[in-house]
Design a protein that fits this description.
By secondary structure, the chain is α+β, with helices and mostly antiparallel strands. It has 22 helices and 33 strands. The strands form eleven sheets. A six-stranded mixed β-sheet has the order 2-3-1-6-7-8, with helices on both faces. The protein has a six-stranded antiparallel β-barrel with strand order 9-10-13-12-11-14.
Length: 791
């Protein structure tokens, strides 16, 4: 009878196989076989695929009238992820051979490891088998062997608290898709056709950056002047009760030189900084010009080659076993990154950095030590070099001694309320190994650090200061804010940040310029819509985590806690509607009726059939169900439409990919004729069509402006490649036939060509205002044009 040990991913399966003696075999009398998932093999299907067919239309359309969803309508059906068919096939085969199925996925606070195991069991139909759970703190050989020997019997999926809480979180995040639909609808009602994605982490990022950006932009410097002292060693002495004045001249001149009194000396020490998570590492690398998405992809490649540890860990410490495993490699790692191994004298575990709890351990160097940083760069690029150097130096700093300094405190003898502090370095310790600020934003230097300590004599001076400007938002700043509020893990913060700052995405929420972070267009709209909403509340994640704890302990059910989401959706519709009105007023936008959208599978899509959504109206015509079906089938349709000038015409076309200001979209595309027929309200005669197709340029004086209804003249030709009329309003040395809705006579054009200035009347500006002017035909800006004067 074989026990099938199911690991979370191939790398974990390799470690388990190594610990037990192979992929298949027997360990202490128990036959086993190691199988592997590849993270989540399944994901929730689209909402309309989870409900009864009678509700599918309502759950598919993004209309606010279809919200909120009823969680009890949803079957929570799953669909396989992309490119996992081979993994599913191998897993199904292995599970079929087992008398016992062993859960060997990660143990993490969110229960994610249990969720991805049980969703695979659920979809593959292996309930009712004998199950057990391996519980190990890390993937060391000893931990895996002990966990296999002591595996815990498991009754069923629903008996596992970790599964229940992880499933609840997954369901909650799925239901939060409704908030994206609300925000997007509000944007479209304001004339902005953007998808405004919302979620616990995305919305938190937008709120934090938007609020900080506002504070930074609104900063007004307010100088102040104050009496202080400074000694010959540049140590400053301050009195917190000394008044501040708004002008230098108002500061009272009441102090004189005085001796300094040393009050105390004390040795102080600072422990090495904590080990890095992926968010902290990525924040530092932004300062070196490495984007978050490049950090993620490069780190993943390095992890697969065992050069660095598992990227998506939630741990910020390492276990004693992990410390022990890396100990023999420390000197080699130090040589690679240029650290003197003689500095690494604190080889015993630090209780701040080494704890028995954990799974993968904090991000750190892996078991495969490269020969040099140059080798790392050749294989993984500059980003790989930076990653390894920073990660290794951070880990090695833990093995160096504390930073030691002497803190001296003193006061000005004649004015004892003025106190000074000097921190005199004695031993750099870990600071000789790793600089946590050197790769980030401006270094957070110790303002009291002094090489010489307190001086002997202090001189009074007028100090000029100002209210501190709020820090400009950066990735480093944002990650600190999220960590402080316990929103997301280091890995999820980094991956979400990469997503919302991706400048290749259709609707990025944030933009990076160097280290500085600002709201993108979609982000600014989201930020303006979020105040007072549930999805924009930074305490939302804390609430979800509290729910997860209750559900895991059995004091609450997912159904109970998910039931509140419907009320939140209703309340957020009201809040976002109110915010949208303020947004339109502040940004000068007008409220617009939102065009309905049609959805379905476009059979003639480039690259093969795919699901699309497109506007269900075009130029005043709303597509019927039959027209939508024909468009999705790739057929050509015709219908009566109206031009921008309000004139009726027959439109013929198909579904296609259009381009609006550089953004691709799927929608109705008007069929372009193969020959010129009409332009600007004038139908070409058969002879004119013949001449245009022959490549001739025609001067025609009775075109009609769609905007003003007035006639105008110009030269036209046929652009056969673009299949459209190309107008020419004057080029070279030949003046145009008309300008500002006034048609010139042949005599006037002759005078203009001769360089004369003529008087014109009845011109109409672009804004519709009539004016008179003297005009000439001369070169300006590298080409000839009509130039008016109003002398």
């Amino acid at each position: 009878m074989v026990a099938i040990v199911v690991a979370e991913k191939p790398s974990a399966a390799r470690n388990i196989a190594c610990a037990l003696g192979g992929t298949r075999g027997s360990y202490k009398g128990t036959a086993y076989e190691v199988a592997s998932l590849r993270g989540h093999l399944y994901e929730f299907a689209q909402p309309h695929a989870m409900v009864d067919s009678s509700l599918a239309d309502a759950y598919q359309k993004w209309d606010l009238g279809n919200l909120p969803w009823n969680p009890t309508d949803l079957t929570w059906k799953r669909a396989p992820q992309k490119n996992v068919a081979d993994v599913i096939k191998a897993l199904r085969s292995a599970l079929g051979r087992g008398a016992e199925i062993v859960i060997a996925t990660d143990l993490d606070p969110s229960g994610e490891g249990d969720l991805l195991f049980w969703e695979a069991i659920d979809e593959l139909g292996f309930h009712g088998r004998k199950f057990s759970r391996m519980e190990f703190t890390d993937e060391s050989k000893t931990s895996i062997q002990r966990a296999f020997e002591r595996r815990r019997p498991v009754k069923s999926m629903q008996d596992e608290g970790d599964y229940r809480k992880a499933m609840y979180r997954s369901q909650f995040d799925f239901l939060s898709m409704q908030f994206t639909r609300i925000a997007t609808a509000m944007g479209r009602q304001s004339g902005q056709d953007l998808v405004l994605r919302q979620g616990r982490l995305k919305s938190a990022m937008v709120s934090l950056v938007g609020n900080q950006q506002k504070a930074y932009d609104a900063y007004v410097k307010k100088p102040f002047f104050q009496n202080r002292f400074r000694d010959e060693n540049d140590v400053m002495y301050t009195n917190p009760d000394e008044p501040r004045c708004d002008q230098r001249s108002r500061v009272p001149q009441q102090y004189g030189r005085s001796a300094v009194v040393l009050d105390s000396k004390a040795d102080r020490r600072t422990a090495p900084p904590k080990l890095l998570d992926l968010a902290s590492l990525s924040s530092m690398l932004v300062g070196k010009g490495v984007k978050a998405n490049l950090t993620l992809s490069t780190y993943q490649k390095m992890y697969e080659d065992q050069v660095v540890s598992y990227p998506r860990t939630e741990d910020k410490t390492v276990t004693p076993e992990q410390l022990k495993d890396l100990a023999p490699l420390v000197d080699r790692i130090a040589a690679v990154v240029g650290v003197d191994a003689a500095l690494l004298t604190h080889r015993q575990p630090r209780p701040t950095h080494v704890k028995p709890q954990g799974a993968h351990g904090a991000n750190r160097p892996g078991p495969k030590v490269p020969s040099s940083l140059d080798e790392v760069e050749r294989k993984y690029g500059k980003a790989g070099r930076f990653i390894y150097e920073m990660l290794a130096q951070n880990y090695l700093a833990m093995l160096a001694e504390d930073y030691l300094y002497e803190q001296q405190r003193g006061h000005v003898q004649e004015y004892p309320d003025f106190v000074g502090i000097a921190n005199v370095p004695k031993s750099p310790g870990w600071r000789s190994v790793f600089d946590p600020d050197g790769a980030g934003d401006a270094a957070e230097a110790d303002e009291n650090e002094s090489a010489k300590g307190l001086g002997q004599t202090a001189e009074p001076f007028i100090f000029e200061g100002a209210n501190k400007r709020p820090e400009h938002p950066t990735m480093k700043w944002l990650m600190k804010q999220l960590e402080k509020r316990d929103v997301g893990t280091g890995a999820t913060r980094t991956s979400t940040y990469s997503e919302v700052t991706n400048d290749k995405a259709k609707y990025p929420l944030l933009t990076e310029k160097g280290r500085k972070l600002r709201l993108a267009q979609a982000g600014e709209m989201s930020w303006r819509l979020l105040p007072g909403t549930h999805i924009g509340d930074l305490g939302l994640t804390e609430k979800v985590y509290a729910d997860m704890r209750d559900i895991a302990s059995g004091t609450a059910t997912a159904e109970e806690r998910l039931a509140v989401v419907a009320d939140w959706v209703r309340e957020d519709i009201v809040a976002m509607s109110r915010n949208a009105a303020s947004m339109r007023a502040e940004l000068g936008l007008e409220q617009q009726a939102v065009a309905a959208r049609a959805q379905g599978v476009w059979q003639a899509a480039p690259g093969g059939p795919k699901k699309v959504a497109f506007k269900a109206a075009w130029s005043g015509h709303e597509f019927g169900d039959d027209e939508v079906e024909r468009l999705l089938a790739g057929q050509t349709i015709s219908f009566e439409a109206r031009s921008r000038a309000g004139k009726p015409f027959t439109a013929t076309g198909t579904l296609g990919v259009g381009d609006f200001e550089g953004r691709k979209f799927v929608g109705f595309q008007l069929e372009v004729p193969d020959k010129p027929t009409m332009w600007s309200g004038r139908t070409f005669t058969p002879s004119e069509v013949t001449m245009l197709l022959a490549g001739q340029e025609l001067q025609i004086d009775d075109f009609v402006s769609a905007r003003t209804g007035k006639t105008f003249g110009c030269k036209v030709s046929w652009d056969a490649k673009a299949k459209k009329i190309a107008p020419d309003f004057g080029s070279g040395d030949e003046p145009p036939r008309s300008w500002c809705q006034v048609t010139f006579t042949d005599a006037q054009r002759k005078d203009l060509a001769a360089g004369k200035t003529i008087q014109g009347t009845g011109f109409v500006s672009a804004k519709g205002k009539t004016f008179d002017a003297r005009i000439s035909w001369k070169e300006e800006g590298g080409k000839k044009k009509i130039v008016p004067s109003f002398d």
